[in-house]
Amino acid sequence: MRSTMERPARRWVLPILAGGFVGGMLVLPFVPALVLGGVLALVGVATLERPSWRSAALLVAALLLGLSAMEGLGSLLAPAAVNRGVVKIYDPRIWTVDDPIVGYRPRPDSTVHVEARYGDELVFRQLYTIEPSGARATPRSGSEGPTYLFMGDSFIFGEGLSDAETLPAQFAARLHNPAHVVNLGVLGYAPNHLVRALETGLYDAHANGKVAAVFTWISPVQLPRVTGDASWLGSSPRYVIDEAGQLRHTGTFTAHRLRNPLAGLSYLARSHFALVARTAEPALEAERARLFVALIARLRDLVRARYDAPLVLLYDWPDTDRPGQNDLQYLPVFRALSALDIPMVPVRKVMGPVQQWSEFVIPHDAHPNARLTSGLADELIRLTDRSGALR
Fold it and tell me: Per the CATH hierarchy, to which homologous superfamily does domain 130-382 belong?
């Protein structure tokens, strides 16, 4: 006969196990949380009284442990982020503000202290100065002469570099005559942000007189951003290519996913399940490539229409089948970009052979170091004559 003390203990097994699994999902990485849930379900098989409950617990254990094994395999097959293991601490912790046009931008008139570490190793410690205009400070930029607008993501902003080491600052320091050089780089941006900013005139206030050129830096790491596949992009502008082949702004990624639950579920599934992401990747890559090229073409046209100036692309992209490159799958995208008839400056020309690339990036982080921005500034200066116009 069962004791009266045994029944209450058995009655609380199910909520305790369920609570443990929910807690694990909240505090643990996804795969370890699945393993924990599978182990707790096996505990339920051994402790629950009713045969139906034990059978259900066994089924849950098989599902969770099987899913964790598949996810673990998918994670191993997925390419690791180049800066995995680098921990960055910003002070203030949040230094962006919401923006109804581009989703977010740096907080104007602020300074940001950042420290990056890889284990016990200090990777960099820098101070970022954000001007009242919202642009990053560019030493040696003046108020006279032609305007050069640098817009893009963290490569233009200069993550890990001092204000004076960024590409815009190095370019300003090398100009033969005074000029107004503006750093409009923002961490995590992509061409969709830049297109929306120009469509709405967001950057017009930074044009102090005649705009001589607009520079941006493109890289394959930006491709997933044009479909909103990153956690920080929910409020960012979303574009599609419609049935007529025209680029069209549709609002934000979050708004689209709320209006279209299947799109929202698809995004959540590929964000949390490595195998789903790998399955969806071929179709997404084709969509991203087409959209990326269309956005760059639109950006070229907007720069010409708004500022009567050329767009210049700095590209960290495979342009030939050179030995050692592990991203040759992006070569067709480069060929499509080349057909747009836009001046292009190869980043890898400065970096030289693949074996030397590590000398031009911040260790463990892979953002450009001052040596690379210096070399690229020299390349951009060669494009300009003494009057400041592009050759």
Answer: SGNH hydrolase (3.40.50.1110)
Q: For residue 354, count other CB atoms closer than 10 A to its CB.
A: 13
Exposed, middle or buried: residue 52 (CB in 10 Å: 0-12, 13-18, 19+)? exposed
User: How far is Cα 87 from Cα 367, in angstroms, rounded to an integer?
Assistant: 14
Separation between Cα atoms, residue 256 and residue 283, nearest integer Å: 19
For residue 196, how far is the Cα from the chain centroid? 17
Per DSSP, which regions of 131-224 are E strands? 147-152, 180-185, 211-218
pLDDT the model gives residue 388: 64
DSSP 246: -
Closest CA to 148 of 216, 218, 212: 212
Q: What would the 3-class secondary structure string for 50-98 be? A: CHHHHHHHHHHHHHHHHHHHHHHHHHHHCCCCCCCCEEEEEECCCCEEE
Q: Going by DSSP bridges, is the β-strand pair 110-118/121-130 parallel, antiparallel, or unpaired?
A: antiparallel
Q: For residue 389, how many C-alpha atoms fall within 13 Å in the half-sphere facing its CB?
A: 3
d(CA 186, CA 190): 9
- What average pLDDT does the chain have? 89
User: Residue 110 half-sphere exposure, CB side, CA atoms within 13 Å?
Assistant: 16
Answer yes or no: are the C-beta atoms of 214 and 301 closer than 8 Å: no
CA atoms within 13 A on the CB side of 265: 3
Q: Are 39 and 47 in contact (CB under 8 A)?
A: no
What would you report as the CA-atom Rg of the chain, rounded to the nearest whole angstrom? 25
Q: In angstroms, rounded to a whole number, what is the distance separating the alpha carbons of residues 37 and 60?
A: 8
Is 116 strand, coil or helix? strand
Q: Is the pLDDT of residue 2 over 50?
A: no
340 neighbors 296 (Cβ within 8 angstroms): yes
CA distances from 194 to 127, 191, 343 (A): 25, 5, 18
Confidence of residue 77 (pLDDT cuts 50, 70, 90): low
Q: Which of 13-17, 54-58, 313-317, 322-326 has the lowest mean pLDDT?
A: 13-17
